[in-house]
Amino acid sequence: MASRLYDSIEPNVIDEEMLQKAVEEQGPQEEAGQLAKKEGINFKDVKELQLDFRGILKIDNLFQFINLTKLQLDNNMIEKIEALDSLIYLVWLDLSFNNIEIIEGLDALVKLQDLSLYSNRISTIENMDTLEELQVFSIGNNNIEVLENIIYLRKFKNLRTLNLAKNPVCDNDLYAMFIAAYLPDLVYLDFRLVDENTRDMAFIKYQYAIEEMKHGEYVALSKQKIQEAADKELAYHKSAYVEYLNGPFLFDSMYAEDPEASKLVYLPGVPELLENYKTKFVEVCEALFDYGLKQHEKREAEVALFYECLNEALSENQAEGTKIIRDFEEQHCATLDLIQNTSDPQLTELKLADYNEDISKLYDILMSLEMQIVDQLECRDLENHHHEKLLEIAINTLEKVVKSEFDEEMPDDVRMLFVDKDTIVNAVNASHDIHLLKIDNREDEIVTKSNSWASVLIERVHNDEINRNRSRVLEINQYIDHLRSELDNWDILEQ
To answer: Thinking of the domain 16-222, which architecture would CATH place it in?
Structure first.
């Protein structure tokens, strides 16, 4: 492993002072730099940041640099990749010459194209699945030993440049040929162009292995697409609050947690009763499922229409406000020329007073304009009916058992239910209570989600309108302040 250039640097942390100093050093210089320093540089405006050779032990406090595209953290003492989740626009990241052992913490960097982890202590290439735009990857001078680990990089379809030099894996005689075979779109390997001769030899040697692997990848991709489609469909059902109602899922869940059901099913007539109950129950669930999807589409259409009307009203309001301001400026353009060119103090004072009054009226008009903008489940009934029928069968069976008229085979645990009337009634009621609880919970879940959706929507609309209103009021005040400032300047000139 190469010696670190930062061995003589004192350990440090990324704090506000370090970040401010780095931004000032790398920002505008001379007069522009002095002005920027005086006014303060907003970290949100910084696109590139160099924090190399600073003895940094831990990545931290970068959350304010939300628009950063390039980050240089090389030649430090960093041991873990972390605290980068807010840097979603990062394109270039250099973490070379550090003490990193595991590739991690990169999930949010979906726009990353160039990543350098050169000269660290990494032994496995992993945890980079979200870096779909990766084009350049440098992980030389690490501890990569397993040649097959390189196959992981096949998922990066845009990868064209790879540096693995000075890793133990490079000592393998098949190293270059293996990579040429499994990464056929690679252009540069270890700073050298991958030549066609190597590609041809690699194809011949690994042809069958790669074809088999491609088949496996195809099967895995097909399964992934099917799963993604199923997940997408389920997510849509959840957005309509009817997930798992398009089938026997709710019915099956009721009986999965009902220990008495497996016993009561042995009673004569109960299997037929249960099958009929299931059929009707599932029909109700599917009807509710279809109704829920239709209502969801209706809600989505209503929300879209609401926002369309809102945006139309806002546009009309803004257009009217713009027209009022334009008319005001056109109307008073001649007044300002007259004030500027007149030599009569009394006329100037009179015109300034009129202008000041018109500004106040304009404020009132603009502010007034701104202020203008400012079912239950049927399953319960089925369950109650099923419960009544089941209880009737149970009582009739009990009477036959007592009179020794019941000759059908019955497991011992089921026969124990017919010791007396209370035992069998309690068993039937316990089963009924479990079913009702499942139905009640599902109904409550639908109502709760529906109410929550409405509350969130109303709150979002309310907050958006508050923010828009505050912004608009601020604009009006700034414009009126500007007009009055001009008026004050006229007063000073006249004095």
So the answer is: Alpha-Beta Horseshoe (3.80)
The phi-psi region of residue 119 (left if phi > 0; otherwise alpha if psi is between -120 and 50; otherwise beta) is left
| pLDDT of 121 strictly over 80 | yes
How is 137-188 classified by DSSP, letter by letter?
EE--SS----GGGGGGGGG-TT--EEE-TTSGGGGSTTHHHHHHHH-TT--E
Name 49's bridge partners. Answer: 71
Handedness of CA 86, 88, 89, 92 (dihedral sign): positive
Spatial distance between the Cα atoms of 413 and 419, rounded to a whole number of angstroms: 11
Q: Find the range with the poorest average confidence among 77-86, 283-292, 335-344, 440-449.
A: 335-344
CA distance 210 to 216: 10
Do 345 and 250 form a contact (C-beta atoms < 8 A)? no
pLDDT digits (tens, 9 = 90+) for 206-251: 888 888 888 888 888 889 889 989 999 999 888 888 888 888 888 8
Residues 6+ away with beta carbon under 8 Å from 102: 80, 81, 122, 124, 126, 127
| 3-state class (DSSP) for residue 425 | helix
Confidence (pTM): 0.56
Residue 381: which residues within 8 A CB-CB, separation 6 or more?
Answer: none
The helix/strand/coil state of 432 is helix
Write down the domain spans for the chain: 16-222, 255-494
Contact at 8 Å (CB) between 193 and 200? Answer: no
Residues 361 and 356: their CA atoms lie apart, in Å, by 9
Q: Are residues 284 and 250 in contact, defined by beta-carbon separation less than 8 angstroms?
A: no
DSSP state of 10: P
Closest by alpha carbon to 363, among 487, 485, 486, 477? 477
The DSSP annotation for 255-297 comes to HHT-TTHHHHTTSTTHHHHHHHHHHHHHHHHHHHHHHHHHHHH
**Residue 89 C-alpha from the chain's centroid:** 15
More confident residue, 120 or 14: 120
Q: What is the edge-to-edge ordering of all strands in the sheet holding 48-50?
A: 48-50, 70-72, 92-94, 114-116, 136-138, 161-163, 188-189, 192-193
